[in-house]
Amino acid sequence: MSDSNLFEQQRINRRRSVILVAGFLAFFAWIGFGGDLAAFLYTRDLPAREYHHVFPVFGAIFTLIGVVMAWYGWRNGPKQGLWATGAWELVTPDQPEEKVLVNVVEEMCIASGLPRPTIWIVPDQDPNAFATGTDERHAHIAVTEGLLRQLGRDELQAVVGHELAHIRNQDVRLMTLLAALVGVIALISDGTGRFIGRGGGRVARGGGSKNGHAGDLPPLGPRLRQ
Questions:
Q1: Active-site choice (97, 98, 136, 163)
Q2: Which residue in 6, 153, 181, 185 is a FRET match for 72, CA 20 to 30 A apart?
């Protein structure tokens, strides 16, 4: 990839990231200010001694909530994604495959001029790999145990090079933001559904249903291998 194409791709991904965050904040502002409008219309014809909703308090609160959630997703999205896969950080490699992986990552980073990302191992037998992070200096590469066992060094170089290209192009920033913000919306939707369910008496006492999601969560982590 030429430098001009690289810089153009980075510019496009930065613009898309800004648009994504702006749309996320606009969604929360729309909810809040919509509530203010409804409250204003409801109270405007009440007698003078009654409460009249004038200040857009709902809009301010919901916009602030959106800002906080966007910031939280930006700061914690990469680690939350890694936690969701059950990945553990490769600190001191003690297996031959792990040593090869660290060597390949460091070699490819030197060749590409990128800082060394944090390396993670996903306990999964299917061959797969992904990169996440917010920028080149806060990036992570994760590979599955199955990929380490099935690929040779040259094949592993190709996979690592592909993931480093995502980091260099700032694809990881866009995808991390997208995953984090969509996750926030999903949590809000799930929490609202559970709250409404409890209000209607449809959820068993104790906060969970028979087929609740609690059993699907991965173990708390990530673990560090010393």
A1: 163
A2: 6
6: confidence class by pLDDT, cuts 50, 70, 90? low
163 is known as an active-site residue = yes
Hey, CA dihedral for 97, 98, 103, 106, is it positive or negative? positive
Report whether 118 contacts 140 (CB < 8 A): yes
**Which amino acid is located at 143 in the chain?**
V
Tell me: the pLDDT tens digits for 151-196?
A: 999 999 999 998 898 888 877 777 777 776 776 677 666 666 776 7
pLDDT of amino acid 69: 82
pTM of the entire predicted model:
0.61
Query: One-letter amino acid identity for 146?
Result: G
CB proximity list for 119: less than 8 A, separation 6 or greater? 89, 90, 101, 102, 105, 140, 141, 142, 143
Integer CA distances (angstroms), 150 to 13, 38, 100, 121, 200, in order? 33, 60, 13, 14, 51
Beta carbons within 10 angstroms of residue 82's beta carbon: 21
3-state helix, strand, coil in the chain (%, to 5): 65, 10, 25
pLDDT at 28 over 70: yes
> Which of helix, strand or coil describes residue 143?
strand
